[in-house]
Amino acid sequence: MSGPGGTTTRRDQRRDTRRAQFQQRQLERQRERQRQLQRQRYQRIGIGVAGFVALALVAFLIIHAVAGAGSPGANIVTGKGTFTTGVDGSPRDGMSCVANEGTGQHIHSYLSIYVNGQPVPVTPNAGILTDQQCLYSLHVHPGIDNIIHVESPDANAIYTLGAFFDIWGHPLTATSIGTPVGDYKVDKDHPMTIYIFDANGKQTTYTGNPLNIKLAAHETIVILYNSPTVTPKAFTNWGSL
Fold first, then answer.
1. Which residues on neighbouring strands pair with residue 92, listed in sequence order?
2. pLDDT band for position 30 (50/70/90)?
3. How would you class 162 by CB atoms within 10 Å of its CB: exposed for 0-12, middle for 13-18, buried for 19 or more?
4. Rounded to whole angstroms, what are the CA distances from 101 to 127, 135, 150, 152?
5. Residue 145 and residue 41: Cα distance in Å, rounded?
6. Which of 4, 93, 126, 216 reaches 20 to 30 Å from 84, CA-CA?
7. Smallest Cα–Cα separation from 114: which of 54, 181, 61, 58?
8. For the chain, what are the domain ranges?
9. What is the pLDDT of residues 51-84, one digit of tens each?
10. Are 220 and 235 in contact (CB under 8 A)?
11. How far is the C-alpha of 148 from the C-alpha of 146, rounded, in Å?
12. Of 163, 149, 145, 151, which is closest to residue 213 (Cα–Cα)?
């Protein structure tokens, strides 16, 4: 207080005002500095997280690429559905005719075909060339009627019904089927219905392209061409197969 009797003068008020303004500016600068430091911390955290995510993504892509390249499970052997006269031992659908059965995979599927209400057996030795002493990964042994053997060196490959028909030498599409007794077109008066029984006997009606039916262990595939009175049944006499 600089006035008479300790009173406050205008100069004192101006000084107090300047001091308060100075303190306010200092406080604002301190707060701004804290905000800047906080923003910098967030930026560093964000950069670190982004870097970690990027590295994790790169690692995932590398691992996925290596696994995909090294995994034979990515190989799905399907058929083309085109007719080829005879089987001459040349590669078909990526399968070669080899001297010995593959040991990487050995499963069995049963194929039952009816045409006009009559059963059509699968040709014995289909996929086996006795004159050349070689066989394909998909074949039928004589005396074991209608059972497709999948005996492949590729433990994880997936084989389809279409691939077997190509090995068998008969056409198969969603609108036609070829057999040893003839080739047949599907139309409204001659429908083709396909049933699949899994290893547990569960029955389903297949409505897709028959070329893509995957062969599975102890599966029964029933193809009914113009055979509405035939009741499909699962094959169960697997014995030691």
1. 95
2. confident
3. buried
4. 11, 7, 9, 7
5. 74
6. 216
7. 181
8. 10-70, 75-225
9. 665 565 545 444 444 334 334 344 889 887 765 5
10. yes
11. 6
12. 163
Q: How far is CA 189 from the centre of its chain?
A: 36
Q: For residue 97, give Cα distances in angstroms to 45, 218, 231.
A: 60, 24, 36
Tens digit of each residue's pLDDT (9 = 90 or more) over 191-230: 999 999 999 999 999 999 999 999 999 999 999 999 999 9
Token pair for 189: 């008066």
